[in-house]
Every structure is written in C-alpha cells, then in structure tokens.
Amino acid sequence: MQEKDEKLMEKVISLCKRRGFIYPGSEIYGGLAGTWDYGPLGVSLKNNIKNSWWKKFVDGREDMYGVDAAIIMNPSVWKASGHVDTFSDPLVECTKCKRRFREDQLKEKGKCDDCGSPVGEAKQFNMMFRTQIGAVEDSSSTVYLRPETAQGMFVNFKNIVDSFHPKLPFGMGQIGKAFRNEITPRDFIFRVREFEQMEIEYFIKEEWWEKYFEYWHDEMIEWMESIGVDMNRVHELEVEKEDLAHYSKRTIDFEFDFPFGRKELYGLAYRTDFDLSKHNLIYQDEETNSKLVPHVIEPTFGVDRSVLALLVSSYKEDESGEESRPYLSFKPSIAPVICAISPLLKNKPELRDYARVVYGNLKNEFGRVMWDDNGNIGKRYRRQDEIGTPWCIVIDFDTLTDGSVTIRDRDTGKQERIKKEDIIEYIKERMN
Predict the structure, then answer these.
(1) How many angstroms separate the Cα of 430 from the Cα of each of 69, 85, 114, 165?
(2) How far apart are CA 310 and CA 45, in angstroms?
(3) How high is the mean pLDDT of the chain?
(4) CATH 3.40.50.800 correct for 337-431
(5) Burial (Cβ within 10 Å: 0-12, 13-18, ≥19) of residue 372
(6) Please, which pLDDT band fits residue 322 given cuts at 50, 70 and 90?
C-alpha cells in the first residue's frame, strides 16, 4: 500500500507539472523550497474551489460578512494574540551535517533524516516572517507577514458591528494568503511557506457553543462532499485536551489519507472568547441592553490542501483498453475546463470555422471552455481526460449537413450525437 501511494504521489506531481497545474517556484533559478507557482489549470481549479466556498459560506447566507484584511498588520495584533510569544515549532540541528528539522517530524526520534547522526537539543523557532516597514530599520519598524487570516477578522469585529449592527449569531468570512517560515516544508503543496486559507469566525453566546459546533461540523462535511473530496479518505480526530491550542476548548481535525500519510486537511475549533478578550472587544446586545464578549466557532480550510485532496481524490486509471488511460474525475462544477471544442480535422477550414462558432457560444456561456485542435482526435481525448475535462465536443462533416455534434463523456468514454443548439442545456443538466 505504501509503495502504491508513493507512486500515486509521483503521478500526481508529474501530471501537475506536465499539464500546467502547478510548477516549482522560481524553477529557472533552481527553485525555492516551500514555494510553488500555479499554472493556468491550477489557478482555475483553485478559483473554482474558492468560488464554491464563498458561494456556500458567505454569499449564500444572511448572517455572514466577507472581509479582506491586510496581510501586514500592526505588530501589537500579534503580541495580543500570543503569536509573538508562542507561535513556534521545536527546531533541532544535526550534529554532523548541520541540517535543521522540526523535532516532531523526524522519521526516527533523535536522529537526522539525512545522515542518521544524532541531533542536538530542541530550540523553539518562531515561524512568523519578520520584515521592516518604513525607511528606518530598528525595533520599532519590525512587522510580520500574517501567519493566519483569523486575526484580520477579529480586529475588524468592531467595524462590522458599527457598520451593519448584526445580531448574534453572525460570522465573518475571509479568503487570503498567510505565511509561515516552515523549518522543513515538504510533501508537495501540503506544507509550504506561502499558502492560502478560507476561514470563518462565527460569533455566538457562550451557552450556544455546543449547538453551533455541531452545526458547523455538518456544514463542513456537506461542502467537502459537494466539491468531490473522497470521503472514504476523510477521518475525524478529536484533539486531546493536552494537545489543544492555547485558545481552544475543543477542536476537531478533519484528516485526509494523502499518499504520504494521514494528515490534517481542515479544522474546526471552539476558540471561546479568547481572541476578542485579548483585543478588548465587546458586543452591545441591543435586545437585552447588556454587554458581553462573544465566543467564537472557527471552521478553517486550506486552499492548497483542498487542491491536493481533490487531485488525489480524482486521479483514476482506466485499464479497460490496450493501454492505461489516466484521468481526473473532477466534478464538472470544479473542473478547470468544462468542455473542449475540436474540429475533427484542423486543416479543413469549413470544420474549423464551424467549430470556432460553437466554441465562441460555449465560451460566452460557461467561460471555462478550451479550444483543442492539436494532434489527432485520440490524443486530444487523452489530453483532455488527463486534465479532467468532463466533455469533448467534436465538429465533423456530419455537423455541416445536419447540425449535430459528437459529445464524449470523460469517465465512460461514451460518445453520442446531439444537436448544436442543445449543447448548452445538455451541459447545464449534467452540471446541476
């Protein structure tokens, strides 16, 4: 099983590079550990994930307010939240080769992963990236790239209350970049130094916390299923009391069976009133004319880990033919490309011109439509299967006489003829 999973990871990484999903960061200069660049298909996949999340958790609700807080914040924010003093990992250094590792991620306790020599004593390493702001570089100009998006919402709590006067319960949602100076970034895009989060801070009265914790648990499960995460690979871990973050009273980690092991995918935490208390923020309850510090339920989702989980969930190999056919079984709503349009023969102007008209109509309707006339039709099918395109539409000589096209299904390979004017409705029915 371990060997099979390692091969799966190799295949996924190779596909991502070859087909334009994800490239190593700064590759022409030798790369930079823990950084990755998203190519055209990767950007499309990532945006579809984010759009699905935003539609369900922000635009689809009456009690949610979207924000986009600054990446660089007043350093007092991180002092109040505890990040300056406690946001650290145990760092160890090999006594021989001087490589550095996170102590809790060593393959064998006390030994270097590279050369097997003993490692030194662990030291706490703060993972926030420091930088300077302004023209003078001294301690007063030190700021940090945010290690999480949550604090940007907490410090805007008062602004939302003053602007919109929401009643409890209500929430704030944000999608944005975060940065962590990981000691040992690893496992492709799973553990990186620059990543994107989708987070919610949901404000409640203390006595409601158990009800809303369960509510958000179910909402997270529902969304995972809707985008196509393989739920057979998902497991829930109730975090033990001694392992809880300093702000949490209860946390569930949604773990996923990645090819490199079972690792955290998403998290759900009850943060109590820790954050708003630290920032000295209160809520005026207009119904009871009383003041309180709301408690917080926090569902958090990693965008990059979502991308990786979907790539692993959707990777398939059809062995029914003479040779294996790899394909990505993305749901149409999430797939980077919804359909591809091809003339049967690229050197026939009448087919190409007709196909261009069909392409333009579908492009206007769906946006995520690809033109593909490179190579023979069999190669085009394989290429589109590999990037997860649900349908390939081919314009042939029969199209010129009767207005029908061939539409091919990615998962089954089945082909059928439909009228040109029925294509949009055909796709919409299957997308919904």
Answers:
(1) 37, 52, 50, 41
(2) 9
(3) 94
(4) yes
(5) buried
(6) confident
158 burial type by CB count under 10 A (0-12 exposed, 13-18 middle, 19+ buried): middle
Q: What confidence score (pLDDT) does residue 126 get? A: 82
Q: Which of these, 271, 274, 66, 272, lies nearest to 172 by C-alpha position?
A: 66
| DSSP codes joined into one string, 61-124 | -SSEEE----SB--HHHHHHHTHHHH-EEEEEEBTTT--EEEGGG-SSTTB-TTT--BB---EE
Written as six digits, the tokens of 400 are 């010129």
Q: What is the pLDDT of residues 149-197, one digit of tens each?
A: 999 999 999 999 999 999 999 999 999 999 999 888 889 999 999 999 9
Lowest mean pLDDT among 5-9, 174-178, 273-277, 336-340: 5-9
d(C-alpha 97, C-alpha 145), whole Å: 31
Task: Specify the CATH class of 2-73+132-312 in words.
Answer: alpha beta
What helix, strand, coil percent values describe the chain, rounded to 5? Answer: 40, 30, 30
Q: Where do runs of H (alpha helix) occur along 100-231?
A: 150-154, 157-164, 209-227
Dist. CA 193–CA 302, nearest whole Å: 13
Backbone φ/ψ region at 236: left (φ over 0), alpha (ψ -120 to 50), beta: beta
User: Domain residues of the chain, as ranges?
Assistant: 2-73+132-312, 337-431
Cα 135 to chain centroid distance, Å, stands at: 36
